[in-house]
Amino acid sequence: MMNFDYLIVGGGSAGATLAGRLSEDPSNSVCLIETGGGGQDLLIRMPLGLAVMVPGRLKNNNYCFETTPQPGLNGRRGFQPRGRALGGSSAINAMHYIRGHRRDYDDWAQLGCPGWSFDEVLPYFKRAEGNQRGDSELHCDHGPLQVGEQQGPRPVSQAFVNAAIETGIPANPDFNGAEQEGVGFYQVTQFFHGPKNGERCSAAAAYLHPAMHRPNLTVLTNTQALRVMLADKRATGVEVQRAGQRQIIHANKEVILCGGAFNSPQLLMLSGIGDPAELTRHGIQVKHDLPGVGKNLQDHLDFILSFKSKSSDLLGISPTSALRLPGAINEWRKTGKGLLASPCAESGGFVKSDPQLERADLQLNFVIAMLDDHGRKLHYGNGFSAHVCVLRPKSIGEVGLYDSNPLSAPRIDPKFLSHADDVTAMLRGARLLQKIMQAPALAEFREEEVLAAEGDSDEALLKHIREHADTIYHPVGTCKMGTDAMAVVDPQLRVHGISGLRVVDASIMPNLIGGNTNAPTIMIAERAADLLLGKTPLAALDVPVFEDGRAVAAE
């Protein structure tokens, strides 16, 4: 029989961080369960490996989920790549280090999540961060997560920045600084010195791999969680399948779900915790009525403009690219620099679709390749693409089940473009992107557009958006934190009505933040570690009282 104090399900950005922090105390025994592998493959360590992993050409590190048919996207099924290894999606992402706007977290606090305002979470962002730029009021240089400058971005990425400036967008050297709005280069979670210089710094590389020697930490990879074990409204362990055998791993203190916005609600539902209508539909016994499980799915929808280019300093399918590859591999192996160190999306920014807005509501990304359908559809030649997404969508979806089989994929329905305001914002963002791409600074790189809209009208552009837009990989909210009847966890991240059970990952976000979600997810895990270890004041986070998942007056 396997017994541990803390049992963590999911070794992604949150789970790897939490396991590393909890096991720093030798009095805690910690077990981490991960469905995928160890997260140290060459393709993971090599930043440009994402070009192979994200499209799912090699599925060992990617769940390769799909959505249900989306009416807002002309009935298409969207593609939802998610990391499947220690490090999770931080093992396959573009490595952007973005926190979001400070008001995003103040909004959380106002929505019934005391303790989660920006001033209260900033210390946890800083504790995680080992920033190449050094210590400051907003940054830290000695955290485990390496945050550095890019190792040598392409000149065309600077041209995109210049083009945006030509259209009136201000330059911004630090998207995590005093102001988020503007254009510039992304800092990335990448080793910037030492023997790993130029390698990806996933959450596992930062927190978990250096801790694997600890005698109080057990990491089980290639292990599938099947259900949370419950006894009298208390989580006691997790049933898993490992090497073809089922077994139960017991938790003396707590079970902590860190599976992300898709897998955490799925595991809760498979365990009998969720909306009774969803559970009974699949023959699952209702053990705890918690209707918010799987609801409140929010994600960033992304629209792309792609162009061919004569520049050979770009990714593409061409004889020139093939001839350059061996040299690029050798350069990265020796120096950690060059094309293989690139995050692909090198520059970008945050802009407003309407000047009257209080904060940027659109994010831009500039990629050194022609992207079509997440890189799953290839085009001959070299080129580049520019992306825009709506940062705070009003289209709200859900995650459910297809059946009661734990090995089945979850049912994912983001309901993209189901709200009229998102359609308006996306159209404005696409028009802005068109303006930037036609600016003089890009003229020397730009050739013909790939997959252009059939006409210049808003109707033609919207048709084009519906035919091609898809996620940019930031799903959140399906086990939301809060104090209303649809909240799944309280401000201490405890599942309402079930003792000994927490959720710690992006699914607890009540609202999607304005930016990439990896850094905020790591922050959530850093904060959760203090909650679990009693290192943070808890009194302010103890309201309201819930009974069986229903809100009642605080005592």
What can you see in these coordinates?
By secondary structure, this protein is α/β, with parallel strands linked by helices. It folds into 2 domains: 1-57 and 81-147 and 188-298 and 397-413 and 474-555, FAD/NAD(P)-binding domain (3-Layer(bba) Sandwich); 151-185 and 301-390 and 418-468, 2-Layer Sandwich (Cholesterol Oxidase, domain 2). It is built from 13 helices and 25 strands. It has helices at 13-22, 42-45, 50-53, 102-110, 118-128, 155-166, 203-208, 260-270, 276-281, 319-335, 420-437, 458-468, 518-533, and strands at residues 2-9, 30-33, 65-70, 76-80, 129-131, 145-147, 182-185, 217-220, 223-230, 235-242, 245-257, 273-274, 288-289, 301-309, 316-317, 345-351, 362-367, 381-390, 398-400, 411-413, 449-450, 470-471, 501-503, 546-547, 550-551. Strands 7, 14, 15, 16, 17, 18, 21 and 22 form an 8-stranded antiparallel sheet that branches. Helix 1 links the parallel strand 1 (2-9) and strand 2 (30-33). Helix 11 (420-437) crosses helix 12. The longest helix has 18 residues, at 420-437. The chain starts with a strand and ends with a strand. The relative contact order is 0.18. The model is unreliable at 538-555 (pLDDT under 50).
